[in-house]
Every structure is written in C-alpha cells, then in structure tokens.
Amino acid sequence: MTPAQFKLYWSLTYPNSFPVSHLFRHYWPEKWFRVHSLPASKRYAETEAEWLLLLDRQNEIISDLLENAPEIYLVTDSEQFAEAEENLVSKFTFTELPAFDLHLVNPNEYDKGQMFKPVFTQLLWKKNKLDDVLKVIAEDNLRAFFISIEKQCIIAPYDGGIDFILKDVETRNKFKNKYKTWLSPRPDGL
User: Going by C-beta distance under 8 Å and a sequence separation of 6 or more, which residues neighbour residue 133?
Assistant: First the structure.
C-alpha cells in the first residue's frame, strides 16, 4: 500500500478523523468497545504470570477477531517508534504518511506545532508473533494500532487493554458479549 492508497483508504473508511488511537472511541462510540488485559482492571503486569495472562488475552481476542484474515497494518508515530527498543525497531520497515499538527486535532491537549508523524507497515498476524510489540505498548512505551482492511476494524492496544472499532454495531455487540468478563464494570466502558 502506498501513502496515497492509505490516505484514500483512511478518508473513505474513517472520514473526518485522525489516526490517533486514543481518539477512536470519540469518533465512533457506537462501534467501540474496550477489554482489559488483566483481571479487576489492573493496568500494568508486575509478575511473569500477569505478563503471560495479558499476552494470552490480547492474542486470543485479536486472533479471534482476525480469524482467516491475518493481513494487518501496524500504524504508529515514527518518532515514538524510533525511541522504542532497538531490537523491535530493526524488525520493521515503515512507509511514511504526511505529518499533521496535533494542536489542530485537540487544541486543549496539544501545543501548537506538536507534530504526529504517522508511519505504517504491512504484517501478517499470527498468535504470539507480535508479543514484543504488544508488551512495549502495555508498558506505555509505544502508542500504535492495527488495521484490518478485510475485517474492517481497528485494534488499538494501550497500557491496560485494547480498544476496538469494529465494522458495525452488530459485530461490536457479538465480540463485546463474547468477552464480557474482560469488560470494565464502569457504565462508560473505560
């Protein structure tokens, strides 16, 4: 996929939005849901057993969602990714997208001139293959998300769980019900 193709895909599929993962639930609340990676909404893994559980949960739900459609795109900020662990950075070759000023996205949260420089790479999802990426995200050392064009979804891990934007309300409800024990007890789903 070229940058022009990505830009066209994004503008047609996710119009009037920016590829900034923490904003997705605001853009598409009807197609959004969140699961927590650890019981009792615990945010960070502290033991090896918790890391195993976190990665098992994340791999299970992502694999379930992407069943028979393993092609995904990893999207992140080029500068933030460059600061991630060296062995992780060397595994990927990214294509750059046009940068944009985050102040235009949310003037209350970002200073003028604070740039987001998105990049993407095409991957094949395989259970446990991207554990190093999921772990760096879970440690809050990287912000990144996955897109499945075939499944029409966004998968946005964060430090504490995963946000999903699914193709429609019915699909969202199906997965939300299937993984209801991993949902937040809060009424807002956070």
Answer: 74, 88, 142, 144
Burial class of residue 133 (count of CB atoms within 10 Å of its CB; 0-12, 13-18, 19+): buried
Along the 190 residues of the chain, how does pLDDT read in single tens digits? 999 999 999 999 999 999 999 999 999 999 999 999 999 999 999 999 999 999 999 999 999 999 988 999 999 998 877 777 666 767 889 999 999 999 988 888 899 999 999 999 999 999 999 999 999 999 999 999 999 999 999 999 999 999 999 999 999 999 999 999 999 888 888 8
Record the tokens describing residue 145, joined without a space.
Answer: 């998300």
The model's pTM: 0.93
Are 89 and 132 in contact by the 8 Å Cβ rule? The answer is: no
